[in-house]
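Render this sequence as a predicted structure.
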Amino acid sequence: MDAMEWFKKISAIPRPSGYEEQITEFLVDIAKARQYHWRIDHVGNVCIDVPGKGRGAGKPTLVLQSHMDMVCEKLPDVEHNFMTDPIQLREENGYLSAAGTTLGADNGVGIALALSAADQANCPPLELLFTVDEEVSMLGAKNMQPNFFHGKYLINLDSEDDQVFTIGCAGSLLVTFTLPVAFDSEYQAQVKAEFVVDKLLGGHSGTDIHKGRSAATKVCAQQLLVFTEAGINFRIISVDAGNATNAIARLGKIQLAFATVEDFQKAQDLLLDLSSVNEEEKPSLTLKKNDTQAQPFDIVSHNRFIAFIYELPHGPLVYYDQAAGLVETSCNFASIKKDEGNNYIIKLFYRSFVERKFVKISEELNRIADRHSVKIEISDPDPAWPPQKDNDLLNIATSCYQKLFNRQVSVAPIHAGLECGYLEKLSPNLSCISIGPNILDAHSPDERLEIASLSRTEQLLFNIINDFIQSF
C-alpha cells in the first residue's frame, strides 16, 4: 500500500492524546503479521524493528519517527465523538480534509509514510518509532528511556511543508492558573444573556501565531473590559473559551447577568469590531438573551476575573524578523475552563528558541499570579531542538531533493514543537532532520492535506532511503 492508502486506514482509528490503545494495537498487529520484532515501553511508545532488505541489508539503522495521537477539534454544530468515531474524509480540489473536524494528518501521515517505507524491497534496517501524547505534553518522548531505539540517523515525519527540511524547533512551556470564584445569590438581574465569539480561524499555536489571528480567549477578556469601562452594571455567570493548548482558540462563550434592560442594550452596542484585525477572518460576535438560572459571580470574583485574564498575553512576544514572520518567543492564551468545583482553569502555552527566556517568563507570571491571588503551576519546559546545520543525514537529504526536484530545498528551524529535542538528548550523536507534506491549518477543523504533496514526500523519502543505502 502507498502512504495515502495507509493514511485512510489510520483515519478510521480513533486516537486522541492519551487514548492511543487502538492505533497501538493496529501497529503491533502489522508487526506480528510481518514477523517484525516490536516493543512497547512503560508509557506506551512503540518501536518496530524492520530488518534490512535487498541492497539495504547490513547498512546502518535508520529511524523513522512520528507520533500516534492527534489534536481533536471540531466545529460547534458537528456531531463527532473522537473517542469512538472514524474521521470522515473528504477530497476536494486536490486536498484531503475532514467533515468539520481536524483531519489528523498531523501526524497520521507520518505513520503512513513510515509503514509505506517499510514495505520497500530495498531498505536499510529501520526502526519505526511511534510516540504517544505528543500533542498534549510530549509525554512519550519526554519519558522515553535510553536505548529504546538504537539508530544514529533519524527522520522525523512531523513537518508540514514539503519545500522545507526542518533542522530545529522551539522549546515550550505550559502554564496553568487556578482561579477560584464565589457566587452572589442576591444580585438582581433583569436580563440574562450569552456573549459568543465564533468563526475565528484558529490554527496551530506555533506556526500560525504570527498571522494576526484572534484568539477567542483574548477576545473574551477584551470584551469584558469594554463592558466594565463603559460603566455597564453586569456580572459574569460563566466563561468557556478555547480547548487544546497548542491550538489558537476559535470559540468563546460568556454567560452574563445585566442589572437592567438598558445595561443589556448598551452592551449590545459595544460589541468589539474585529474586522480590521485580520482580513482573512470573518468572526461572529453576538450577545443574545437566554434563560439560564445559574448565579453570577460575586463582585470581588467578577472584578478579579476580568482584571486577571485581561493581563494575560497572547501572540508573538519577540521576533527574529517580523517582516519575515520569524518568531523567537510567543504565547498562546489557550483556554478558560471551569472545573467540577468553583475554580477556573486558565492555560497559557509559551514557545521559544531561547530556553532561558522561560526563566524570566516564569518570574513575571508568578508576579501576576501573586497580584491577583491566583494559584499557578508551571511545567518543566520541553527542550528546544538546536538547529543542526550540518549533519550527514541532512547532506544526503538535501542532495537527494536537488536531484529529484531540480531545485534547492529550504533548510530552517520551526516555531513549533517537535520531539527531536528529547530524542537528541537520548542519543547525543543523532543525525536528525524533519520532513513532511503540505498540511494547512493544522490543529483546526480547516486542516487539510495536499494530496499531490503526500505523493511527492513519499517519493522523496524513498529516494533519501536509497541514497542513504548508497552512502554507506
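Summary. DSSP finds eleven helices and 21 strands in the chain. The chain has a mean pLDDT of 96.
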